Structures are given as structure tokens and as C-alpha cells.
Amino acid sequence: IFGLFIKLSVASGVMLCLELWYQKIVVLMAVKLKDTDVAVDSFSICLNINSWEMAIPLGSLVSNSVRFANELGAGRPREAKFAVAVSIITSTVIGMDLLILILAIRSDFATVFTN
User: Where are the membrane-spanning stretches (predicted)?
Assistant: First the structure.
């Protein structure tokens, strides 16, 4: 089981490194564009949205994992199962709320980042 854990960990680490390297390469390539200010500004907005998009679910994942582990560690498998169910329902509700919000303001979404 430890070998599987290492295999998944290395794959995840490589994936994160490739994502960061890709973003840095795109910034370096933006210098070749005609209007570099617009290119770099729009890419900065994209990275900012991407950061929020990752930070919020990651925080939720960590807190849910801790709660689940605490319930299992206390010898309460029923409560652990309930914690997982609550986590899934909460994630689904938040995802649907954000989907509806983005669909409702899709034509005005870009104006938040422009003059």
C-alpha cells in the first residue's frame, strides 16, 4: 500500500509542477505579443481566478478529511459516514449555486476585471 501511495504522490507532484511551469512559460511567451500589457494583465486575471478556484475546494477537502479522520479515530464509523455525506451534499449545493451565479452573470462577468 505504501508503494501505491508513493506512486500517486509522485504523479500528483509532477502534475502540479507541470501546471506551474506551463503558466510561467505562457508568461514568458506573452512578451512576444504586440500588446504585452493586455496579455499579461489578462493572464494575471486568469491566474487569480485559478488560484481562488483551487484554494477554496482545497480548504474544504482538508477540513472534511480531518473531520472524517477524527470520527474514524474516535471509533465512530456511522458519524464518519455521515460526515462524508454532509461533505458531498455541501459540495454539490455550493457547486450548483456557483454554476447558477456564473450563468446568470456570464455576459457581465468580464466587466468586473475591466474599466
Answer: 82-105
